[in-house]
Amino acid sequence: MRIIAQTPRFFIREFVPADEQTYLSLFDDKEVTLHLPKRTRHENLQLFRETFKDYVEKRVLGRWGMFNNGNEEFIGICLLRPYGNNPDQVELGYVLSRKFWGKGIAGEMAQILVAYTFTHTNIPEIVAVTTLQNIGSQKVLMKAGLERMSDIFRDGEELAFFSLKKNRQ
Prior knowledge:
Layout: E1 3-6, E2 10-13, H1 20-25, H2 30-33, H3 41-56, E3 62-68, E4 74-83, E5 86-96, H4 105-120, E6 125-131, H5 135-143, E7 147-148, E8 152-154, E9 157-165
Parallel strand pairs: 5-6
Antiparallel strand pairs: 1-2, 2-3, 3-4, 4-5, 6-9, 7-9, 8-9
Helix pairs in contact: 4-5
């Protein structure tokens, strides 16, 4: 299990198989999933299990768990993944347990993943999307340096689109 980053409050690490139920429980909270793509429990399970392929292949991008430094309590998920078919863009995403909302953890994590991307890859642009109503996540992305661009449509839904190019960092 590789640790991606550590701060005084939390650490980001690869998941282990024993994290499966903890991971899935995050999606049981309707407030947490309000702004996420609608997925079944089985689809979320498949996503969790697919993450291990990235780890085995030692990919730089991936889906990781965030855990409290003091007691290793599960905070949520963060990810970096290719965005669409554009090799020059990586998408930053995250989901936090409601208990950890409003504590600055998302902003700290986003800044870490921006630095991680520009340090460990040659990908020149980080992008992110949120629902139009997810003002909290939009503020997190802007604090991490991403700029709000023109809205996009994905899967029939209008989404706020954010971008940060390496030379703008």
